[in-house]
Amino acid sequence: MSIVGDDMNDGAMPGASHLLARGAGDDVRADRRLRAAIDDLGLPDEFRLNERTRLTVQRMAERLCALVEGDVRQAAGRRLVAAGLPELALVLAGEERIAYPALAAAGLFAEAFVARELLGRAGQALLADALPLAAPDEEDRPSLLVRLAEDKDGMVAAAAASMLVADARRRDALDGAASRGDVSAELHHRLVWGAAAVLHRALMPATTEEQAAFDTALTEGAAQALAAHDEGDRAEAVAQRLAATLRPGDAELPPLLIGALGDRRVPMFVALLAQRLGLAEEDVRDALLDPAPERFWLMLRAAGLDRPTIAAIGLALCDADPRRDVEYFADTLDCIMAVSPTAARGALAPLYLHPDLRAARARLEAGA
After folding, report:
1. Is the pLDDT higher at 205 or at 12?
2. Which of 79, 224, 316, 367 would give a disulfide with 75, using CB separation of 3.0 to 4.6 Å?
3. How far is it, in rounded angstroms, from Cα 298 to Cα 300?
4. If phi over 0 gives left and psi between -120 and 50 gives alpha, with beta otherwise, what is residue 107?
């Protein structure tokens, strides 16, 4: 159609209505953009996500949403076919995925729990990708996890083999891959009902009878997707089972920790350290990934690790993360070793509080 002509296509009316609606809401969007810009301008550089982390988190979230939405669509579609409504089922069978942009716009991925889990997944995958691969002590000697998978103890071998599979699946996340089983039950729950809500709003049929059938199909489809989920396949859960099977003593823990990092098995490293400390794996993971390392050094001392072990771990992390200054770490090592394991455990005492109590304390301190 000509830009300068006077003719108007009749099909332009829906677009005109959309334009009017968006124009009427411009104040709201302009305010949101301004607030986001203010937040961005006031954010110190140390708290900014680097571009690779941001893109990895976004890619993970998008792929997880697409998988979960597909599960809900398929399960709901089967119920509509069974109810004698194949035309509605065909609407759900479309290939286009709409949940991610809608849930992102609604702020789901800015919620603390969701953001923490996605950042943790992305951070571990990126750290594993950047860690220097340790050279074997002997030529042609298999890596630590491969050796454990060939252990004479069948339980150790089975747990290590499962870890190999789960860790490979997690690393594929860097290429945009995602696995239904590699998310926590709580995150999966939020994604399932979020996807169902998006589909409910976007694809609701016109008649009352069809609406009731659509409601039922979506609800039952979401319930089926939830029932089929098994978070025991998560890399963290598999690593936790491996750590529990190994249950290393004081002399066995240091080589396992160094070997896990040298083998780029970050979930295994986190699980071993969390087990020794009796802490939640999420807390150990967050401390490991935090470029401000003080809490992590305290964790290593609380675990009773000696100077060579802490030095090896610290140097590996400095090699993997340009935000970590190797010279600063070398200068800090004496201070780290000056902290006794007992004093380190005392400093970590807040991490042993009930999570709800910790959250309430954090809110009080933030408002003080």
Report:
1. 205
2. 224
3. 5
4. left
In this predicted model, what pLDDT tens digit does every residue of 210-224 receive, in sequence order? 999 999 999 999 999
Residue with tokens 């630590």: 144
Closest CA to 199 of 180, 214, 178, 220: 214
Report the C-alpha gap between 159 and 178 in whole angstroms. 22
Longest CA pairwise span in the chain (Å): 85
3-state secondary structure 253-301: HHHHHHHHHHCCCHHHHHHHHHHHHCCCHHHHHHHHHCCCCHHHHHHHH
Backbone torsions φ then ψ of 125, nearest 5 degrees? -65, -40
Q: Mean pLDDT over residues 222-235, rounded?
A: 91
Q: Between vectors from CA 148 to CA 127 and to CA 269, what angle results, nearest 5°?
A: 30
Alpha-helical runs (H) found in the chain: 12-24, 26-41, 51-82, 86-92, 99-105, 112-130, 144-149, 154-171, 185-203, 208-227, 235-246, 253-262, 266-277, 281-289, 294-302, 307-320, 326-338, 341-347, 355-367
Which amino acid is it at 338?
A
Place of tokens 């997707």: 225
Kindly report the CA angle at 161 between 156 and 167, in degrees rounded to 5? 120
